[in-house]
Design brief:
It contains one helix and eight strands, in the order αββββββββ. With 182 residues, it is an alpha+beta fold. Strands 3-2-1-5 form a four-stranded antiparallel beta sheet, with helices on one face. The chain is elongated.
């Protein structure tokens, strides 16, 4: 109702058509961005596993130097003993390997335990080793390359390789490769 002597009142807000157009544009943008966000999340998780593996290797090396004794990192499903079979994604432990036999004996100290990785990821060593040892000098008992990649839901093109050289130094490299995850 118009009152005499007063201008008509304007209603502020959006029309239904403006709201529908805005929601449609937002839906299209979300559909385009969602796969990119998923790839970023999967890449981040892969980097996290690579960093955890590399950090455990660095801990083993530094403890070997500090103690001037052999320290070993081995695959472990239970966190208390080394596994003679299986793969690295079952988890691993770092321990003071006093007798250098790559087995946790009664008096040897465990420094770290990393639980199993997601079954969607694969962690394999090129040489198939189940234990990596460092001498008291910090030197590695063996050179090795470990590959981390996504196996599920579909094999990814991103991989991380961790190299352990004879001096005991580790390096992590990002690799874009379309070949299947080992």
């Amino acid at each position: 109702m118009m009152r005499p002597g007063h201008p008509p009142r304007r209603h502020a807000g959006f029309t239904l058509i403006e709201l529908m157009v805005t929601l449609t544009v937002l839906a299209v943008v979300a559909m385009i961005a969602a796969p990119s966000f998923q790839q970023a999340a999967l890449s981040s998780r892969l980097t996290s596993y690579a960093n955890a593996f590399s950090a455990s290797l660095k801990l083993a090396r530094s403890e070997a130097i500090k103690r001037n004794a052999t320290v070993t990192m081995c695959r472990s499903a239970d966190g208390t003993s080394c596994a003679g079979s299986g793969s690295w994604e079952q988890g691993w432990i770092v321990f003071n390997d006093a007798n250098a036999n790559s087995t946790v004996d009664g008096t040897e100290t465990r420094f770290a335990y990393e639980p199993a990785a997601s079954s969607d990821y694969s962690i394999t060593s090129a040489g198939g080793v189940y234990a990596l040892s460092f001498k008291g000098s910090g030197m590695s008992a063996t050179t090795e390359t470990v590959t981390l990649c996504r196996a599920n839901p579909t094999p990814g093109t991103q991989k991380r390789t961790i190299g352990i050289d004879a001096t005991g130094r580790t390096s992590v490299a990002r690799v874009n490769d379309a070949t299947a995850c080992p």
